[in-house]
Structures are given as structure tokens and as C-alpha cells.
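Sequence, please.
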């Protein structure tokens, strides 16, 4: 019996092995559904010793007012669903499906012995700008609605919550709307039981930013927020201070210019106090305004240099994080460039001095104009493959005055969709979403594919309908990663 137990324990450890974190991938929960928790927060609960993820629940046809979903995890990669933590109530004055229930944050209140949820509560035209409050005895909920209030009499749009590890005090971060009188981001302290706000600690005046979060290092506070460009991502900025009340630094851009923070918006961050290392993660959203319910998550390690007073969000296609030790490592993959690619139809290789080989593959259109990468090594198990691309459909968003397709009566396409076929198996077409980029900016989107064991695999990329057209994005290279 003892032997069986030991074997079982061994099997169990290999099963519960931590999963990789894959920014921008289709994340599935333990039941095989898409992780559906947008613009939310992660709360580590000491009692259950689990990470709890809360976020906006969005499905096709119900993009707002869907309530707040909740998931739990031991490793930040494997997510078990627990349904809705805050369920919309028909006819309710603040939390019906007709209302805005956005950017939920949860914190435990020692004083009340309950979990407190706060969020941006609004009517469908964003005319109220309130903060909603609900409580629960357990992290998973259900949370019971308490109130929706105007914070210290002001307006509150995008909502963030930060707890200072030095004294346990929690703070609300909120942009106060788009009106001329607004356009500030407030940092206000909660009372000790986290039932109401006490006082304004700092105001980030007139920067017109939103989606705020704070990272606390041993020496500094780093506030991150995005510009206001709706669901279009932009260059997120950071501010640094020694104390929450300031003085705060000038804003600075936290990721390589024009990557638009790797096509994501800020909103949350998490500090992992490991036994060997303290790691900070940027927890952002990659909105898909053409189908909000398919929006993805961009969680990335943050590199902080206290001496130089710099903070950088760093891209990794895939990384392995050990939440116990705090250590993480980027996973190495095998790169296949345009040199191992054959074009067909109207697809062709074009000079591009910013591309890996000095040329990029363009003209991928419909099913006939394709590119096929050959000689790809596989393992027979599901593997993540990152497709590095450029998609300039944005018409120069942010660079050209107006820079918008509506200028010529067009619509925001925002993403192209490519078909991806392994070893010519057209019965199984994978859809690769490729968000728009600045010109000359190469970003990547991961897809999980199963390649045959050996080195003779092919991956063929064509164009699929994105609602307007059948174009695939321009391809620079693909990188194939080892299985988890
Ligand atoms: C939302 O609230 C504002 C302010 O009270 C009001 O002007 C607006 O009509 C409301 N929108 C809806 C859809 O009721
Ligand atoms: C909110 O604060 C701004 C300044 O940040 C002020 O101009 C405005 O009047 C305040 N609004 C309310 C409703 O108190
Ligand atoms: C929370 O604290 C405030 C004072 O800071 C007090 O007025 C209120 O009754 C407390 N609420 C709860 C639920 O303990
Ligand atoms: C391409 O092929 C897919 C599936 O094989 C099909 O659904 C789609 O309509 C085709 N598109 C074009 C433009 O032929």
C-alpha cells in the first residue's frame, strides 16, 4: 500500500506541475473554457493559500454588466473556475445587467473579517461615476451588494486598489472621468476596515490617464497607468515616489516605444515575495474591441532598477514562474525565419530593414496566398508557437493626425486573423489573431499546436475573414517552444 501511495504522490506532483505563463495566448481554465476575468485583480489569500483572480465576465451579446467572475490558482498558471463572485441582479439599481460593473478589486478586511470587493459602478452611459462595494465571508463569494458611492464626493471611473505592505493600509486609485473638471487620477486612503474612503493622499493632476495600479518595492512606489484611447492600447506610463503622498516623478514610458505596452493596457500588478527572489508582474489586458469577450491577458515580469529609478515591463513569449521561490525564467524556443519559409500565390518576401532577416513576408491573403514554414521540429505533444508579425491596418494610430480609418469612412479592423494549418491538415484550421501594430514594430501572438514527433513538420499560414477582409498579417518568424 505504501508503495502505491508513493507512486500516486509522484504522479500527482507531475500532474500539478506549474504551468507556463503565456501572455496573449488563449488561456483555458481547468474545465477547458476561456479564462473570463477581464480588467480585474489577483488577491493572494493567506487562509486558503491560493491566488484568487477576479474580473469582468464577458460573453458575446453581454459585454457589460455580466458581473464579476472568480478563479483560484496555486501557481498563477492553472485556474479553477468558481462561477460568479458578484452576480448581476435583475431590476437592481446598481448591479443589473444594464449597469457597468468594471475593474473589480478584492481585499480582506481584518476588522470586519470579510472580503471586500470594490469596483467602478456606473449606468450604461457612464453618467454616475461611482464606486461599488460588496462583501463576502469567503474569497469565492457570493458577494453581497452593500452600496455604490461617490468617493469623497467626487467622480470615479477606472478603479484600482493598492494595499501598502508596510502598514496594511489600502488605497483606492481612480481616474475622475473625462470632463474638463476631471482628467485626474486620485490616490485616496481607505478607512481601516476598508468600508469607505478617508482622504485624498495624492492627485495625479490633469495627466488624463486611467487604468491605474501601484507596485511597491522596498524603496519605492511605482504607479502605472495608461493613456485614454478606449480599447486601443497605448504606451503605459509609470511614476515613482518614496512616499505615497509624493513627491512623484515625471511620468515615463515603461515598455519599448510604439509597442503600445506590447498591445496591452495596465490595470493591475502583483508582487510575489518568494523564498529566493521578489518578482513583480505587470497584469494587463489585451482588449479586442471587435469581440470584447475574446480579449486576452498580458502578464509580464517587471524589471526595476532603484538606483537608476527605472521600471521596465519586459516581453517574454513564455515564462516559467515559481510562486514559492519567486524565481522565473523565460523559456527558450527554436526560431524559424523567412529563410525556412516558402510562399505561394500572391504572398511574397519584401525588403524590411526592421525584420529579422531583412525581409518580411507580406501579401498573405485568403486561402491561396500562403506561407509555409518547413522542417519544423515537434514532440507529438501540444506546444506553444509564437508568430512574430506586423499588422499596419491602424493607418498610423497615434502618429497621423486623426490617424483613423473613420477619416475615410472605414472601420477599425484592429486585428487580422490568419489561418494556421499543421502538416497540410486543412480539417483542423487554427485561428491566429494578430492585433494591429505600429509600422515596423514586430510583436508576437502565441498559438498552441500539436506537431508530429520529428523534424519534418510544416506550418502553413493563410488569411482568414476578420469580418472585413481575408488578410493575414506580415510574418517575420515563428518560434516553437518545448512542451510544458
Ligand atoms: C446615466 O446617468 C446620467 C446622470 O444621472 C444621466 O444623465 C443619463 O441619462 C443616465 N443614462 C441612462 C442610460 O440612464
Ligand atoms: C472632482 O475633483 C475635481 C478636481 O480634481 C474638481 O474640479 C471637481 O469639481 C470634483 N468634482 C466633484 C463632483 O466633487
Ligand atoms: C468602519 O470604520 C468606521 C470608522 O473608521 C466606522 O464608522 C464604521 O462603523 C466601521 N464599519 C464596520 C463595518 O466596522
Ligand atoms: C478559406 O478556407 C476556410 C476553411 O478551409 C473557409 O472557411 C474560408 O471561407 C476560406 N476563405 C476564402 C477566402 O476562400
Amino acid at each position: 500500500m505504501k508503495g502505491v501511495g508513493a507512486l500516486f504522490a509522484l504522479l500527482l506532483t507531475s500532474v500539478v506541475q506549474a504551468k507556463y505563463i503565456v501572455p496573449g495566448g488563449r488561456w483555458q481554465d481547468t474545465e477547458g473554457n476561456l479564462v473570463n476575468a477581464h480588467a480585474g485583480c489577483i488577491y493572494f489569500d493567506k487562509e486558503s493559500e491560493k491566488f484568487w483572480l477576479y474580473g469582468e465576465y464577458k460573453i458575446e451579446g453581454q459585454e457589460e454588466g455580466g458581473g464579476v467572475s472568480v478563479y483560484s490558482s496555486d501557481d498563477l498558471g492553472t485556474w479553477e473556475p468558481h462561477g460568479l463572485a458578484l452576480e448581476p441582479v435583475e431590476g437592481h439599481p446598481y448591479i443589473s445587467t444594464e449597469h457597468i460593473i468594471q475593474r473589480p478589486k478584492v481585499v480582506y478586511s481584518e476588522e470586519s473579517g470579510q472580503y471586500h470587493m470594490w469596483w467602478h459602478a456606473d449606468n450604461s452611459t457612464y453618467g454616475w461615476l461611482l464606486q461599488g462595494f460588496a462583501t463576502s465571508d469567503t474569497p469565492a463569494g457570493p458577494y453581497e451588494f452593500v452600496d455604490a458611492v461617490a468617493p469623497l464626493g467626487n467622480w470615479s471611473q477606472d478603479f484600482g486598489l493598492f494595499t501598502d505592505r508596510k502598514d496594511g493600509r489600502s488605497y483606492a486609485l481612480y481616474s475622475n472621468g473625462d470632463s474638463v473638471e476631471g482628467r485626474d487620477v486620485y490616490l485616496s486612503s481607505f478607512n481601516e476596515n476598508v468600508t469607505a474612503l478617508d482622504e485624498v493622499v495624492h492627485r495625479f493632476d490633469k495627466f488624463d490617464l486611467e487604468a491605474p495600479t501601484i507596485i511597491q518595492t522596498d524603496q519605492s512606489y511605482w504607479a502605472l497607468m495608461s493613456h485614454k484611447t478606449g480599447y486601443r492600447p497605448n504606451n503605459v506610463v509609470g511614476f515613482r515616489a518614496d512616499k505615497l503622498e509624493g513627491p512623484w516623478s515625471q511620468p515615463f514610458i515603461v515598455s519599448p516605444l510604439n509597442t503600445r505596452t506590447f498591445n496591452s493596457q495596465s490595470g493591475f500588478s502583483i508582487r510575489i515575495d518568494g523564498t529566493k527572489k521578489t518578482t513583480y508582474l505587470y497584469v494587463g489586458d489585451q482588449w479586442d474591441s471587435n469581440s470584447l469577450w475574446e480579449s486576452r491577458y498580458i502578464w509580464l515580469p517587471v524589471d526595476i532598477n532603484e538606483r537608476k529609478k527605472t521600471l521596465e515591463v519586459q516581453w517574454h513569449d513564455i515564462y516559467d514562474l515559481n510562486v514559492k521561490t519567486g524565481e522565473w525564467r523565460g523559456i527558450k524556443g527554436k526560431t524559424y525565419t523567412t529563410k525556412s519559409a516558402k510562399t505561394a500565390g500572391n504572398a511574397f518576401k519584401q525588403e524590411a530593414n526592421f525584420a529579422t532577416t531583412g525581409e518580411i513576408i507580406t501579401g498573405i491573403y485568403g486561402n491561396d496566398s500562403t506561407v509555409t514554414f518547413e522542417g519544423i521540429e515537434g514532440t507529438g505533444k501540444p506546444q506553444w508557437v509564437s508568430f512574430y508579425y506586423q499588422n499596419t491596418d491602424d493607418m498610423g494610430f497615434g502618429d497621423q493626425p486623426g490617424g483613423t480609418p473613420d477619416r475615410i469612412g472605414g472601420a477599425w479592423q484592429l486585428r487580422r486573423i490568419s489561418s494556421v494549418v499543421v502538416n497540410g491538415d486543412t480539417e483542423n484550421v487554427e485561428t491566429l489573431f494578430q492585433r494591429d501594430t505600429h509600422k515596423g514594430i514586430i510583436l508576437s501572438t502565441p498559438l498552441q499546436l500539436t506537431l508530429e514527433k520529428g523534424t519534418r513538420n510544416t506550418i502553413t499560414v493563410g488569411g482568414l475573414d476578420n469580418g472585413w477582409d481575408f488578410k493575414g498579417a506580415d510574418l517575420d518568424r515563428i518560434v516553437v517552444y518545448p512542451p510544458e
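Helices lie at 2-15, 260-263.
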